[in-house]
Amino acid sequence: MEIIKVNELLSAAWLAAILPILVASIPWRFSFLYGPILSVAKRGKTLRSSNSQKFTIPQRFFLHFYVVGVVWTTFLLAMTWFYGYAYHKMVPVGSDSLHFSTVANHLTGGSHMHKSQTSVGEHGYRVWRSVFLLMLMEIQVLRRLYESIYVFNYSPSARMHICGYLTGVVFYTAAPLSLCSVCAPEVFNFAIHHVAEFIDKGWDKMLIRGPISEIDWLIYVQPLTALEWLQWIGAAIFIWGWIHQRRCHAILGSLRKQKEQSDKYVIPYGDWFRFVSSPHYLAEIVIYGGLVFASGGSDLTIWLLFGFVVANLTFAAAETHKWYIEKFTKYPTERCAIIPFVY
């Protein structure tokens, strides 16, 4: 029986999510999808100004996105890292002395069924590239979890649509999986095989043997040094967006504290707010653009993940920009919605 490829399923899912947003974004609002997509995208201040708040939940449930994201990304990172370690022990990164299927079958207890023509060296590099991408994603979801608890003080009246909530939960499940989709099947088989082996034979047969103090931790990070310049430039782009998003979230968080005292919305200033109305969305796009760059740009699934982020946040930013203009008569005219000097 032909195994369904995880990356193909994810690609189809991202494409199915992107298309309705693109159709809903047709100019002049002729799109029949505009209303439904808008009702799902609205939250907080933009939803409060709406006449209907049916099927909504508290916006503070944003926290659930990042709990899911941290738990799932940590699991995928750990499993992929251990798989990469075992792979590297058999065949160091860059070696082509064996075929990928031979190594994968050994590591997964013979459960690997892909008929790949990829060399072991090339596939080993892809595995460690996935580890690197998941490390970056872990940094992102950990900060977002921290901000949801300590930075954003959501008003009790702030709401979000239940479909928007479900979209967020699905996103933070599918996004980390997309970053390691090229090796996800064998990683899961590897995990299942070693759990079964542990239950059957005990600790001595596990990947890590002996006391923790005797483990050579350098072996676990050494393959990362074999990554190419694309990964490190992508990481630099990621960190650039990450820093600016943190700053913009801090600005928005401080405004929410001020609103508690005066019960009035104010115009945010500082950092990328000089250029756009939703700089935290712009920073998110930069962050995922960094992930695309770090992936090497050859993975369609990650490109489609990036496409969804761009489409979704651009649509939401347009509505936020519209709200600001309607709310404040002296709103800075030089600000665009999300792309400086363009849109």
TrEMBL record:
Presence of keyword Amino-acid biosynthesis: no
Alphabetized GO MF terms: 3-oxo-5-alpha-steroid 4-dehydrogenase activity
Protein keywords: Membrane, Transmembrane, Transmembrane helix
Annotated ranges, domain 3-oxo-5-alpha-steroid 4-dehydrogenase C-terminal: 216-343
Pathway participation: Protein modification; protein glycosylation
Membrane-spanning residues: 12-40, 61-83
GO biological process: dolichol-linked oligosaccharide biosynthetic process; polyprenol catabolic process
Protein name according to UniProt: 3-oxo-5-alpha-steroid 4-dehydrogenase C-terminal domain-containing protein
Native organism: Papaver nudicaule (Iceland poppy)
